[in-house]
Amino acid sequence: MLNLKLERPLIVFDIESTGTSPRKDRIIELAAIKVRPDGSEDRKCWLLNPTVPIPPETTAIHGISDEIVAQCPTFADKAEEIFEFFRDCDLCGFNADRFDAPCLEEEFARVGMNFASSARKHVDVQRIYHRMEPRDLSAAVRFYCGRDHEGAHGAEADAQATLDVLCKQMEKYDALPKDVPAMDEYLVPHDPLNADRNGMLRWRNGELCVNFGKKKGEGLKKLLINEPSYLRWIVKGDFDSEVRMIVKDLLENGRLPPAPAVSPDQN
Length: 267
Known about the structure:
Helices cover about 40% and strands about 15% of the residues. It has helices at about 55-60, 65-70, 75-85, 95-110, 125-130, 135-145, 155-170, 180-185, 220-225, 230-235, 240-255; strands at about 10-15, 25-35, 40-45, 90-95, 120-125, 200-205, 205-210. The strands form two sheets. It has a five-stranded mixed beta sheet with strand order 3-2-1-4-5.
């Protein structure tokens, strides 16, 4: 039973997509539960052909491949039906404010429809979670060490508290790796095709490419010839130093890091 007063239906929904960019990526699966003020529910789930290839690394997460959606309708085919299901409803999801709702807005915009997300009320379950269960260092000290974090936001006290929390975590979780390289891989799995830790630059078919924004998928060497100003923008921009240094080396010396040695199915 949802102990939340509803003035109009609330749709709890989740999206699986081709990637993590609401503006550029496409919806593959959309599931929605409509909860009415009287407590009754309706459920819908749409499996959609995104009309663009689904990256293998994305399929590895949600299990939906190009073959699975090959004969499915597109979002454009189902736009009217989806719009009608969401009509006059407020929205609820987990991190929906940052991802799921913007994805829906973009998909509707592509077919000339205004989803008007800002005109609806939003209940983001992730925001409730973070508001009610803080995930800062002081909360970690209370949870793992059973004490208040005295001297919070002082560098010395914070460093000691961080070490204390790590010690307790290693005691508490037997499944955690027992050496630093394995822990690093466990926390941030390393993809050999990524040229930097966060995958902003990525190797594709032996070519180092941009892996974000409007130039996603374009090779750095091609950009050096056709749009060097874009590379200069990266060097001067708010990117990790690793990314900026790779691009700067290409601009100044025409040099890129060596391509990784990977099996053909990874490239």
